[in-house]
Amino acid sequence: MKRCPHCDSILKKNSKFCPECGMTVISEKIESVTFKKKKTKRKYSLVVGLVIAALTVFFAFGGMKLLGEIFVSTIDFSDNPSAISAASQSVVKLNCYSKNGEMIATGSGFACFADNVIVTNYHVIDDGVFSIEASTEDGHTFDIPYVLATEEAKDIAILATAVPHNLELLHLGDSGALQKGEKVVAIGSPLGLLNSVSTGVFSGYVDENGMNVLQFTASISSGSSGGALFNNAGEVLGITFASFEEGQNLNLAVPIGEAAHL
Questions:
Q1: Euclidean distance between the first and final Cα of the chain, in Å?
Q2: I need a surface site. Which of 14, 178, 213, 238 has the fewest CB within 10 A?
Q3: Residue pLDDT, tens place only, 42-90
Q4: Residue 50 host element (H or E)
């Protein structure tokens, strides 16, 4: 039995008006449904507001850049021009001069290990070289007055600047864990052409004077000596140093681990 909430009179079934006081009667079911709809709408508005606020803070603090970096990091180094360009900033062209100031050779080198160190091949700085000047991708030049260590048999030279060169230090990869067919990238200055880029694959290990050197197909030429050979993660695998003239793209690099030991 239903009663009027206003005068407590007995109501007929489905009656919308009280016969005694004439007040409109709204069922509790309708009131409950109406209340729930309003509550859900308020909750939905609150969630949307919180999402918008969170996105605003995310983008204000470099969220778009972070998303870009995450996306770029999923691309292989050999297929990523931006990553290759960034790595090129750490590779330098070496101009080698005689005692009387005549340029007698050019080669390549790269920033590694410490903020004043340049790694190259021993034969780049041998044979009458008196002074060395480095040229960077952005046109900056600096002198390299010191030789920290050399190992002629492994064709490695570790050079040093008088002050930090401010080049980003390249990360080292595991040159002993390569599989044939893996993509590689070579960056150096063949024939004096600053920081030319070539791509290829790892071909295998070759015994050279008792050292397992890396054989690869990325093109190099005279002047590429001392350049960096990268794996597909953008890590340095070795120091490019030689080619077999009798064949095509039979190129060699000293494992970077040899320089690390030195």
A1: 98
A2: 14
A3: 666 677 777 787 777 766 776 665 555 544 457 999 999 999 999 999 9
A4: helix 28-60
Written as one letter, the residue type at 63 is: G
Residue among 78, 146, 94 at smallest CA distance from 117: 146
Q: Packing angle between helix 63-73 and helix 28-60, nearest 10 degrees?
A: 70
E strand or H helix at 141, and its extent?
strand 141-143
Q: Which strands make up the sheet holding 156-160, listed edge to edge?
A: 141-143, 131-135, 91-97, 103-111, 117-120, 156-160, 146-151
What are 80's two structure tokens?
A: 């990523």
Structure confidence at residue 27 (pLDDT): 53
**CA-CA distance, 58 to 60, in Å (whole number)?**
6
How far is the C-alpha of 86 from the C-alpha of 80, rounded, in Å? 10
Q: What SS3 class is residue 18?
A: coil
**Residues counted in the chain:** 262
- Strand-pair category, 183-188 with 227-230: antiparallel
Question: pLDDT for 196-224, tens place per residue?
Answer: 999 999 999 999 888 999 999 999 999 99
**Which residues participate in catalysis according to the annotation?**
123, 155, 225
Give the phi and the psi of residue 256 in degrees, each rounded to 5: -65, -25
Tokens, residue 163: 């002050």
Name the token pair of 64.
């778009």
Q: What is the pLDDT of residue 42?
A: 61
